[in-house]
TrEMBL record:
One of its GO terms (molecular function) is N-acylneuraminate-9-phosphate synthase activity. PROSITE patterns: AFP_LIKE (PS50844). This is N-acetylneuraminate synthase. Residues 291-346 form the AFP-like domain. CDD domains: SAF_NeuB_like. SMART domains: SAF. Pfam families: NeuB (PF03102), SAF (PF08666). InterPro entries: AFP_Neu5c_C_sf, Aldolase_TIM, PseI-like, PseI/NeuA/B-like_N, Pseudaminic_synth_PseI, SAF, SAF_AFP_Neu5Ac, SAF_PseI/NeuA/NeuB. GO terms for biological process: carbohydrate biosynthetic process.
């Protein structure tokens, strides 16, 4: 399937998607600077999250509406206040979309209700992302699928049955295609919980391209996912983790994002095929395999000894395994040092 101009799926290098999320820290100028940095990194796409605090929750401070005290980043915080801090105002979307498109970036978003879908349709978003927590909101999935655009669905926390229901809802609703993202919905996520072996399992189970939404530190997990067939890699990005911010701890800085683009392309190129044997790039190396050479000037009738015939580089002489068959024979003619040994010389 396609997301904007990008083909996503088997046989294609992974699409690298930079998620801005709340790393703009409530500053439109910073948001636009993140767009510029994403473009400069070589990433293929920029993703936003389109919601207001009251489209995700309500302003209540009961215990159910607070994140557990032990959470590594947001312990004890009230949901409404956290989303108030992290959301991207609707009026910022157009300048962000325009800046991204000026750079040639594909830009899309995760909508969380009908008002978000309406806004993103006005901006002609080429695709939509369903966040992990919204995978169980089948009415939302059907609404988004009704745009006829492709859906990227994160599967953090989801069971196979829940993923199946979401994929069915997307297809029945008219989505142009579905990409599933393996995801560990913890922030930050421990690499040991990434379970990258599920990537091909999801692809086989649902017959769709599968990528990775990654919240682990660094780029190691994301690059490794390419070996398992990940066709899309989503990572949060910020200008500088030292600046802080709601998602900064598990976000890449621009240099790391650029490294992810390069290394994921290298990982994809490295997959190659299943052939065993010399590659075209090894042709020169074959010339410098070991073989038997005459290493001292000899005269006809001299015996072949370990002192005048050795296994050395380059190739061209008899194979090294023949050394026991040639030792003790005699040279049939004068031979100069540096001559590859052949049967006609002895």
């Amino acid at each position: 399937m396609k997301i904007g101009p990008h083909v996503v799926g088997a046989g294609e290098p992974p699409l690298v998607v930079a998620e801005m999320s709340g790393n703009h820290d409530g500053d439109l100028g910073r948001a636009l600077a993140i767009v510029d940095a994403v473009a400069a990194s070589g990433a293929h796409a920029l993703k936003l999250q389109t919601y207001r605090p009251d489209t995700l929750t309500i302003d209540v401070d009961a215990p159910a509406f607070r994140i557990s005290d032990g959470h590594e980043l947001w312990g004890g915080q009230n949901l409404y206040r956290l989303y108030e801090r992290a959301h991207t105002p609707y009026e910022w979307h157009r300048p962000i979309f325009e800046r991204a498109r000026e750079h040639g970036l594909t830009v899309f978003s995760s909508p969380f209700d009908a008002t978000a879908v309406e806004l993103l349709e006005e901006l002609d978003a080429p695709a939509y992302k369903i966040a992990s927590s919204e995978l169980v909101d089948l009415p939302l999935i059907r609404l988004v699928a009704g745009t006829g655009k492709p859906l990227v669905i994160s599967t953090g926390m989801a069971t196979v049955a829940e993923i199946d229901a979401a994929v069915r809802a997307a297809r029945a609703g008219g989505a142009a295609g579905v990409v599933l993202l393996a995801c560990t919905a913890s922030y930050p996520a421990p690499p040991a919980d990434s379970n990258l072996r599920r990537v091909p399992v999801l692809a086989d189970a649902f017959g769709v391209p599968v990528g990775l939404s990654d919240h682990t530190p660094g780029i190691g997990v994301a690059v490794a996912s390419v070996a398992f067939g990940a066709c899309l890699i989503e990572k949060h990005v910020t200008l500088d983790r030292a600046d802080g911010g709601v998602d900064a701890d598990f976000s890449l800085d621009p240099a790391e994002l650029a490294a992810l683009v390069v290394e994921s392309e290298r990982a994809y190129a490295a997959l190659g095929g299943t052939a065993i044997g010399p590659t075209p790039a090894e042709r020169e190396g074959l010339r410098f395999r070991r073989s038997l050479f005459v290493v001292e000037d000899v005269r006809a009738g001299d015996p072949v000894t370990a002192g005048n015939v050795r296994s050395i580089r380059p190739a061209g002489g008899l194979p090294p395994v023949e050394i026991d068959r040639v030792l003790g024979r005699t040279f049939s003619r004068d031979v100069a040092r540096g001559t590859p040994l052949s049967w006609d010389l002895i």
